[in-house]
Amino acid sequence: MEPGDAIIDGGNEWYENTERRIREAQGKGLLYLGMGVSGGEDGARNGPSLMPGGSMMAYNNVQDILSKIAAQVDDGPCVTYIGEGGSGNFVKMVHNGIEYGDMQLISEAYDVLKTVGGLSNQEMADIFAQWNSGELESFLIEITADIFKVRDEHGEGELVDKILDKTGMKGTGKWTVQQAAELSIAAPTIAASLDGRYLSGLKEERENAARILDQAGIETPKLRSVDKKKLIDDVRQALYASKICSYAQGMNLLRAKSEEKGWNLNLGELARIWKGGCIIRARFLDRIKKAYERNRALPNLIVDPEFAREMVQRQGAWRRVVGLAIESGISTPGMCASLSYFDTYRRARLPANLVQAQRDLFGAHTYERIDRPGSFHTEWTKLARQTKAGALN
């Protein structure tokens, strides 16, 4: 290679490795792009979503080529210069974390419809196809409808019922959750989806637990009769509301990292390039784009006026689905995490005051008051004993 040549790495790479390689390439006079690529087989055929970060000069040199390779949507090719350093790989990592959340939430909707509603695979194929013509329109909803239709070539029934319930992973979801923890960003839906994959891998342990707890006399909750039509609509609304929370968590993680690294990420533009080609492409990404266009400093998608109205309108159905799942003994960690995230974020006052009091008692970590400035420490045990002694007298 000669000075001025560019290297483009299109793999799922840890962003710090990309930043190290950029420095090494610069030392040799070379340009380097770490480019996230999403789309799978369909993206390879019809154009993926591309997330290049690193050398701006390298991007300018290949922009025309990347624009032709990328998926095309109504407002342009699904590629943009993400930012400096390892920003492209970081954005792709968070994209994958959001993807984990999406897939977990869809699997929970499937479980509730199948276990509580007693719906057949063909019925679910029809339902998901209907959902794909509305607010839930997305690649993942579309392919889920197709999956339910496929018959088993080696036996009776549909193939989906013959698949072992152990989910694989490549590691980007774990990286996303680790980064959320490092940056103190709440991402419970994405974390729940990762935990779900970990637990799915414990197939033998789960089978043994089912047997042991059955022998111990655990009572399987009785499934009550439900209005199927009402259940289907409730699950649709719960899935949509949970999805908003999952995307909000991912976007907040991107903002936090952008502020830390000085990347100046344009969250609305990221939503735009995810509208086509990639695995999480969905109709409502256009609405996310517009939300950040209305307010680039939007602290959370939940408080965008349009999304706020939708969350409020759907919370009744959301709570019914989560409550029904708990009552029926069905785990819905993604939906539960999303609902808890929503309920925590919307409360002006939380019970964290008690946690701070506990921390101050055992570790003298101090606390702040709501009625006066400054940090305070209290001799809690001493005062509690004095109070007890006074009461006895």
Structural summary, described in words:
The chain is mostly helical. It has 3 domains: 6-87, NAD(P)-binding Rossmann-like Domain (Rossmann fold), CATH 3.40.50.720; 90-345, Orthogonal Bundle (N-(1-d-carboxylethyl)-l-norvaline Dehydrogenase, domain 2), CATH 1.10.1040; 356-392, 6-Phosphogluconate Dehydrogenase, domain 3 (Single alpha-helices involved in coiled-coils or other helix-helix interfaces), CATH 1.20.5.320. The chain has 16 helices and 7 strands. The protein has helices at residues 15-27, 40-46, 56-69, 87-115, 121-131, 139-149, 172-182, 188-200, 203-215, 228-261, 267-273, 285-294, 305-327, 333-345, 352-363, 380-392, and strands at 6-9, 31-38, 49-54, 72-73, 76-77, 367-368, 375-376. A 3-stranded mixed sheet has the order 1-2-3, sandwiched between helices. The longest helix has 34 residues, at 228-261. It is globular, with a radius of gyration of 24 Å. The model has no long low-confidence stretch (mean pLDDT 95). Residues 88-381 form the 6-phosphogluconate dehydrogenase C-terminal domain. It is an enzyme of class 1 (oxidoreductase).
